[in-house]
Each structure stands twice: as structure tokens, then as C-alpha cells.
Amino acid sequence: QVQLVESGGGLVQPGGSLRLSCAASGSIFSILGMGWYRQAPGKQREFVARITSGGFTNYADSVKGRFTISRDNAKKMVYLQMNSLEPEDTAVYYCKSDSGTWGQGTQVTVSS
After folding, report:
1. 3-state SS track over the chain
2. Beta-carbon contacts of residue 54 (< 8 Å; ≥ 6 apart)
3. What Rg, from alpha-carbon coordinates, does the chain have?
4. What beta strand segments (E) does 26-90 contain?
5. Is 108 in contact with 9 (CB distance < 8 Å)?
6. How far apart are CA 89 and CA 110, in angstroms?
7. For residue 67, how many C-alpha atoms fall within 13 Å in the half-sphere facing its CB?
8. 8 Å CB contact between 102 and 29
9. How far apart are CA 75 and CA 110, in angstroms?
10. 52-109 pLDDT, tens per residue?
11. CA–CA separation, 106 vs 5, rounded Å?
12. Apex 92 CA angle, 79 and 71, nearest 5
């Protein structure tokens, strides 16, 4: 069983950057695909990015070219580097494993 804990959220100005981290526990982490999702107020949770166990990535069109997902299997960590942030990126960001486990979320607010 995998458990996930996100960190790194906060308040940032438009155009700024943040790096989110997701710490995983469990022995099967290295074979799982991992993803980031987000949920803005009043909206449904949506896909942001995913990385396979082998490091292949895909992104939502809205973040392509601005966000980068990566992983460190030795540390059991997944990261989301977010650049050129926009107010529309404001949301709670969640880490999710392909086994169906969700983290508790971390708030990202983009505002001047």
C-alpha cells in the first residue's frame, strides 16, 4: 500500500514559480505511474501531469511547456515544477498513484 504526502504549495505572484513535492511510502513505488491533479474552487478535479515508472511524461494542454513532472525512485519522491504561473493555476494540487491512492493535497494560490 502506498501513502502520499504533498508539500510545497503557497502563495506566489503571477509569473512566479513553485515546486511541489510528493513523498511516497511503500515498497512498490518504483513500479507505479504517478500523477498530479488539481481542483479549483467550484470546479471538478482535473488531470495535470503524469509520469510512468520508466520516466515517460504527459501533460494537460493547459500546463504544457510551463510545468514539469519528475520522480526520484530512490527517494520515493515525485515533483511538479511549475513555472510562469497564472491566476488560473490556483487550486489544491493532489498527488495520485496508479494504484488509486491520493494525497491530502497542497494549496497553490497565484495572485498579486
Report:
1. CCEEEEECCEEECCCCCEEEEEEEECCCHHHCCEEEEEECCCCCCEEEEEECCCCCEEECCCCCCCEEEEEECCCCEEEEEECCCCHHHCEEEEEEECCCCECCCEEEEECC
2. none
3. 13
4. 34-39, 46-51, 57-59, 67-72, 77-82
5. yes
6. 7
7. 28
8. no
9. 29
10. 999 999 999 999 999 999 999 999 999 999 999 999 999 999 999 999 999 999 999 9
11. 9
12. 10
Q: What is the DSSP letter of 88?
A: G
CA atoms of 86 and 91, how far apart (whole Å): 11
Residue with cell 491533479: 37
Calpha distance 47→65 (Å, rounded): 15
The pLDDT score that the predictor gives to residue 45 is 98
Give yes or no for a contact between 85 and 16, defined as CB atoms under 8 angstroms apart: yes
3-state class percentages of the chain: helix first, strand second, coil last, to nearest 5 = 5, 50, 45
